[in-house]
Write a structure and sequence with these properties.
Elements lengths: L8 H4 L3 H5 L11 E3 L15 E6 L7 E4 L2 E4 L2 E4 L1 E5 L5 E6 L4 E10 L2 E9 L7 E6 L5 E5 L7 E8 L4 E12 L10 E12 L5 E6 L14 E2 L2 E2 L4 E6 L5 E5 L4 E5 L6 E6 L6 E2 L9 E5 L5 E5 L12 E8 L4 E7 L13 E4 L5 E4 L5 E5 L5 E7 L9 E3 L10 E7 L2 E7 L8 E9 L2 E9 L4 E7 L4 E7 L5 E4 L3 E2 L1
Parallel strand pairs: 14-17, 22-26
Antiparallel strand pairs: 1-2, 2-30, 3-6, 3-31, 4-5, 6-7, 8-9, 9-10, 10-11, 12-13, 13-14, 14-15, 16-17, 18-19, 19-20, 20-21, 23-24, 24-25, 25-26, 27-28, 28-29, 29-30, 32-33, 33-36, 34-35, 34-37, 37-38, 37-39
Length: 482
Amino acid sequence: MAPLPPVSRRGFLAGAATVLATGRLPLPAVAAAAAPGSFVSRPDLHPPAVAVNVRAPGVADGYILIAPFKITGTATTAYGALIVDDAGEPVWFKPEAKVTAMNLRVQRYRGERVLTWYEGDVLGGYGGEFVIADSAYRELHRVRAGRGQHGDLHEFLITSRGTALITIYALVPADLTSVGGSSNGKLTEGVIQEIDIATGKVLYEWHGAEQIGLDESVFPSVKNDVADYFHLNSVGVDDDGNLLVSARHTSAIYKVDRRTGAILWRLGGKRSDFTILPGAEFAFQHDVRRHADGTITIFDNNAAAPTATTPARPIRIALDMTAMTARLVGEFRLPQPRVAWAMGNLQQLPDGGAFVGWGTAGAYTEFAPDGSVRYDASLADGAVTYRAFRAPWVGRPAEPPAVVVRHGASGATAYVSWNGATEVARWRADVGPHRDVLRPVVTVRRAGFETAVHLGRRKGVVALTALDAAGRELGSSLPRRL
């Protein structure tokens, strides 16, 4: 991201005219679209459609990881954990029915790339578990909160220690008369646990209500005599090993001593230890991360309700620890701003670009280092995703490819897919009188998640073999009768 001159919040929110002053062209309506999942070989998979709005040269390596769901009133409709390619085509989909998947991403555990995600409640209970899966999509660990607590969707971060930092929402007694509740009400406090993944042992626990009072809240959100005054939504490890904690409902970032739990400093909110210079203001933020150059990235939602009209801002700030000031050093802008009143993230890419998930806007964007848009896509049917990531991933599923044979006027067609396989370049059809005597008859290029292979009037049985770009066999389906 190229450094931008500081701008005032009023200047940024003046509307599209200010944003378009950058000279960038508006996003096209739709450049390409992937149809909702309806696969002959996998009729059980129905991922949402993805519309690709911008696809320019030079995008970063890797696939896109999201976990789509829909919010309707006080209920959610789950899709599941989803990896897609740049065309919006599914690569891997794990559907969910009884729980909601959230925060799908690639992390490292014991030196290997793994997939991680949350499974559980989203609205109300905030109770669930965290899954770690290997490149074959086999579950390695299911991490649970300890000490009688229940894990919360907002964070699951694997550390270099082989531990996981997780968030928890817990209720504690409180006097809520100052915010319209009773003297016997409850606070929803943010709790952080650090858990040894191998043993499940709780190594560290931090309680927000012991350090941060109700008076710091800018949005106490009292319902049924419970005040969600804090709303913990991200935990990161700072460059000195202490923790950076983001709280949406105090509009503040806290540096927490990892040993004692004490607040080392506050950034933003009612009790900021820093003077926030014009343009670096933020509110109701998500996904606060420190980077190697010392800067901090923030997804500034700048909104807290579905009726909001102020655009979200993915920003980068620098802290002067001597002058105790926070200064805007960069901002990723869309030609047509998006409102994201909840959720969202900003992932720094290796080349200095960024991948931004727009939360409740149901979209994600990749920015080049100079701030230009090189990729943009949207989820269909009102689906949203808590976060969105781009990351290299090699999937080698443990299960075999799925094949269904259909017959028509011109003969048989085999429909083949391999959920999660990332190295398939071609499909080879092997046909014979029975499963022990098969020979290659046709090879076709992979055509998205599912490929149709026309076999004509051939009889006997068929098996489909996946080939990589060098022609090496990756795996074969079970034989199917023609």
